Structure formats: C-alpha cells, structure tokens
Amino acid sequence: MKRNSVRPAAVVLAAALLGAAVPAVAQGQEPAVTQPKVNLTLEQRFVIKELLKDLKVTPAPPNSETAIGATVPATISLNPMPADVAAKVPQIKSHLFYLADGKVVIVDPKENKIVDAFN
Q1: Are 91 and 39 in contact (CB under 8 A)?
Q2: How far apart are CA 14 and CA 22, in angstroms?
C-alpha cells in the first residue's frame, strides 16, 4: 500500500514544480523571438524603406540596438515620421524612426521602445 501512496505524492510534487514555472512565462518573460508591435505588411515595409532611404538623417552608431521591445538609448537621435510615409502607412504616423546598420527602426514615442525593425 505504501507504494501506491508514493506515486500520487510524486505526481503532486511534479505538478507543483511544473506549475511554478508557468507563472514566470505568463508574467511577461519574452520569447526568444519577439513579434513586431505594429502590423506592417511586406509591401508597407518596402514603401517605408523606399521613402526613408534618401532622407538626410544621421544614422545611429554601428551595432545600435534594434531588438523589438528594447528601449532606445538617449544617445540615438529619433526622427519624426515624414508626411509621405504617414500618408501611405497611417498606423505609424505618430511613430519616430532611426536608421541603424541598414535597418529601419520604428519607435513608439510614448514608451520610447522599438516596435519594429526591418531591412
């Protein structure tokens, strides 16, 4: 009879250990690959890139942060979204941007966080 009582205890212990790990993920630990916070199509990304490529803006220093969800350092100059980009892609009209290592990096001005970055 003692063997049968040991198994349920082991199952309860294993379930408790597994359950303890679940809240950590649910509490905001980000997955290894973070999805963009704005939903841009490939066509919209192309349009944005084409409209921004000829602008005379100071690029960010090499190896600057471009990870989605990261806070933009104060050392990076942010630029307002040009009117022609805002007209073609209205969901980012209030966002800021910078160029880093050939990428367009879109920033939420309220949180100063990167919401998308693409080549």
Answers
A1: yes
A2: 13
d(C-alpha 81, C-alpha 92), whole Å:
8
Identity of residue 97? F
**C-alpha–C-alpha distance, residues 101 and 53, integer Å:** 12
Burial degree of 3 (CB within 10 A; 0-12, 13-18, 19+): exposed
Q: Which long-range contacts (CB under 8 A, 24 or more apart) does 14-17 make?
A: none
- pLDDT tens digit sequence for 15-60: 444 444 444 444 555 445 567 789 999 999 999 999 998 899 999 9
∠113-115-117 over CA atoms, to 5°? 115
Could you tell me which of 89, 91, 92, 88 has the C-alpha nearest to residue 106? 92
Question: Are 62 and 101 within 8 A, CB to CB?
Answer: yes
Within a 10 A sphere around the Cβ of 116, how many other Cβ atoms? 23
pTM of the model: 0.70
